[in-house]
Amino acid sequence: MKLLGGIEAGGTKFVCGIGYEDGKIIDRTSFPTTTPKETMTQVFQYFEGKSIEAIGIGSFGPIDPIASSSGYGFITTTPKPHWGQYNIVGAIQERLALPIAFDTDVNGAALAEYKWGAAKGLDSCLYITIGTGIGAGAVVGGEIVHGLSHPEMGHIYVRRFSDDTFKGCCPYHGDCLEGMASGPAIGARWRKSAVELGKDHPAWAMEAHYLAHALMNYVLILAPHKIIMGGGVMKQGQLFPLIRNKLHELLNGYIAHPLLNNEIHNYVVPPNLGDNAGLAGAIALASNCCDD
Ligand code: ADP
Ligand code: ZN
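^ inputs. structure came back:
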């Protein structure tokens, strides 16, 4: 079986690891994201001498993952200092003569859950993370959904919760989904970190409202076979039943499928790959690039 490398390029830390094309991870390490020079030196040191056949990068974004584009391989408009317009694929190509797959962290996670996790055996799935930001990726028929670039499903507008006066914290759109429902949005609205809010705090019903609206839009536009919800905020397990109930209520029986009605607990689910989801995503991307 082929041995593959994965890089989960996150805004706060990079996770590098190796695993097999069946998703089994055999080694991993991580280090803080500082400057490209410093961080990439650590990446190269990690992979030196490891006999991998391809490498996958699941990156924070926005990025250019379109192979035919002149900007392919770049982290593009990120506000993160030093990383804007950084050619991460080019930097790796210079050092490691290997096939490279490059996509967003959430597209990688969606692919890993599709191949090995909660959506194994299904035809499509959508993975959404609710953390420092909100992002989602979709796989349909084994292919990651791309268009002009990658989708940006975290920045859709959602109906405001009655009584919510929070203006939203997305620097681009104010009260888009990310601006209203990311971890920092919850912290700013309630003036207390999301981690510290009690399980019965009203924040969670409001959070479920926003996330269920987003899920409704994804269901109506894409009709994925399963929706997998990860990221730090979803560690609040009480959100799952709240979101499922709200989604069911919003859809109002319009779509007759049992998974959107009495089986909705099997439709909106946590990730199966747990804390390895990001790295597994990068390795899943690498495995796809070997298939081509
Ligand atoms: P990142 O998005 O940076 O990759 P995470 O997915 O862990 O990392 O998201 C971090 C965000 O998630 C923070 O804003 C934090 O407030 C929130 N968060 C982390 N853990 C929890 C938790 N147990 N409960 C609620 N919110 C959490
Ligand atoms: Zn936005």
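Residues 10-12, 129, 131-132, 183-184, 187, 193-195, 231-233, 235-236 surround adenosine-5'-diphosphate (ligand 1) (CB under 6 Å). The CA atoms of residues 170 and 179 lie 4 Å apart.
thumbs up if we can close this ticket
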